[in-house]
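---------- Forwarded message ----------

FYI, see the ATP-binding protein record below. Original note from H. follows.
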Amino acid sequence: MAIFNFSDDDALGTVSSVDTATVIVSVEDSEKLKRLQVNRLAVLQSSKPGQHLIGLISQVTRKRLILDQDENHGEEFDEQNLCKVSLIGSLLDAEGLNRNVFRRTLESVPEIEANCFSLEGEDLTEFMRVISHSENDGNSLVLGRYTLDDKAEAFLNGNKFFQRHAFIGGSTGAGKSWATAKIIEQVAHLKNSNAIIFDLHGEYAPLAGDGVKYCKIAGPGDVESGKTISDGTIFLPYWLLSYEAMVSLFVDRSDQNAPNQAMIISREVNAAKNRYLSDGEYKDILENFTIDSPVPFDLSSVMDGLNRINEEKVAGVRGPKAGEFNGKLSRLISRLENKISDRRLGFLFKGGADVLQFDYLNRLANLLLGCAVENGTGGVKIIDFSEVPSDVLPLMVSLVARVSFSIQQWTPLEKRHPIALMCDEAHLYIPNRNLTGSADDISIKIFERIAKEGRKYGLSLVVISQRPSEVNKTILSQCSNFVSMRLTNSDDQGVIKKLLPDSLGSFSDILPTLDTGEALVVGDASLLPSRIRIDEPVRKPNSGTIEFWREWQGEVDRARLGSAIDNWRKQKVE
């Protein structure tokens, strides 16, 4: 049975103009015009029987027209009431054996003088149920309920949400973390889910358990206590860095000897990897490895080589003389020694003999990329980067992303298992190119490649940020799904508006007026561009929102400043 049974008396007005996906409706009754609201839904008669067209009201206007001017009777006026509707899809009464099927396609356009109806009341509820049932097909991802009708659940297509990359954004306090947590808890309940959350501030730690594994990049305290990967403590050893990343970390590009230093590092690292493979008799790898191959090597042997070259003497006419690079590597050696001794970088250099084991990468990959049946803990992994220094943060986040991409790329097609990378605070490590330094450039290249090619290898990106205007534009342009919470900054609103289809550009005007916990959802995963109220997650992230006014009226721990300074000096929180 068709859900729409409108009569001519129910019509708001009739179509007076049609332009591709935009329709102008003339509304004769002023009282009916008052019922219309921008961003509400409207139904139009289609030129095809058994079909209705669904649109969003994007503009409502009333114009006073001067019909005649007379000296004795003054001016005669008439009113022209217009409603602008952006068409977004078609509702079919029947398609095969299915009844009331919504499609995000326009198989026809309305004819001139076709009736237009407001979608409200029971008709709206029935239509939203159709939308919900269409998406509730076993691939559903439930975010909350539609603001238009809170009786209808808002389903997204989980396949399309992750297949085609997604963006989640919103100003501080808009509910972005709740929306992310709501998605995480549903992903975690799937039998063989596989996702990594880059948690820069440790706010998602409360989600651990019930299919979610909490991991942490080793901080100074973790190094001292001897924690290992079996404890969920992750060391990202220096030998996993690409050559480009090593140069970025070790070489000061402003140094006049930087090209020579980069060349010598390349030579010494290559030789150290060769020795490791030769000593371990890994002959099959020895024949094919490159400087970027993930092969362990002893950094102390590289340091010995650098010192030897820096102090090298060669035979001269009048006796020994300084070698070609004598004294030219001093700054490089000093910089490298400082990095190695920096307690904050213990996750790179202080992993001990364990991280030099040939199978360490296998164990790391099992933790990061293994689903529940493989690692026995959970398919969703939260990686806490909160103790990673900000100056190397882009390198470290991109290192995990590069390992994920490379392993997916080298997995045979028939054995690939999809994985999603959820990039919280993405503007910090995949910023616009005009805001970047050398470390950021490396990170951007990796994430851009994932955004462009990841789908082929079963790798998805979910970009999460409170500042979309500062996130790399190339990566955002590859996102086909948008969950946008309240955005108050005009630059951020402009970014989202440019990424939406032209017919929905005005829909983004509601971004600054969204309530806390409300989201504008648009994209391939959503049958209908919608305003949704996000459901409260079962486990809430620690978003760090402090009640200032209440706290200022309470008690204060008088020892807090001294303990903070002590923790700062020790580089660990006690």
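H. also flagged this: The longest strand covers residues 74-95.
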